[in-house]
Amino acid sequence: MRNLLFALALSGLVGGHAVAQSSSSTTTFVRTIVVSDDSIFVDGRHVPQPAGLQLNGIRQEFRFEGVDRPSIFLSGQPFTLEGATLRPLRFPSASDAYLNVLRRQDTGLVSRLQRERRMENQARMLARRVRTTRDAARRARLNEDLRAKLAEIFELKQQNRRDEIARLEARLAEIKETLQIRERMKTIMIETRAEELVAE
Questions:
Q1: What is the rounded CA–CA span in Å between residue 51 and residue 90?
Q2: Rounded CA gap, 146 and 135, in Å?
């Protein structure tokens, strides 16, 4: 039932008005979210607007029965209701999932990949300062800092890619060796599997 409610909320049915009925014969509670006049009301009470959310005159109403933490889309962003607070709904990115897998195999590479991310953020901050600085001499120095940072990032990325290739090549060698072993044991494996199937 929770999956159904989540799907209804995210689909923005009927012009953004989502209604879900509980499968239980007795409804214990109802949650409402109303967006009107650039304000957000949860269960009839005004709540702070989540940071970074631009309502821009959006008018939407959501009603949920039997769901304590509904999720909705506002301005193309997913949010979930925690108590009386709307919080951004975070989904792990592909790179986060990759790091989680890699963390169990090569902590050194994970550390360097995380450093790569931090340096990319530093480069973006430098670029923002270049854009907003009016003094020509200071802008020139910031441009030099930006190019130096990008050169450092480039070298780190090259090393990280080499390390990733080496790890993948080692894994590929293991898979090839396993394939060769299986080929040599083909007859035994077929007979063993046949006996297992017959015994089921």
A1: 14
A2: 16
Indicate left, alpha or beta for 30 from its phi (over 0: left) and psi (-120 to 50: alpha): beta
* Amino acid in the structure at residue 112: R
Map residue 103 onto helix, strand or coil.
Answer: helix
| CA-CA-CA-CA torsion sign (104, 110, 111, 117) | negative
d(CA 101, CA 95) in angstroms, rounded, equals 10
Rounded-to-integer distance, Cα 174 and Cα 182, Å = 12
Q: In what order do the strands lie in the sheet with 30-36?
A: 18-20, 60-65, 30-36, 39-42, 45-47
State residue 153's pLDDT score: 92
- Per-residue pLDDT tens over the stretch 132-184: 999 999 999 999 999 999 999 999 989 988 988 888 898 898 889 888 888 88
DSSP 113-140: HHHHHHHHHHHHHHHHHHHH---HHHHH
pLDDT of residue 92: 52
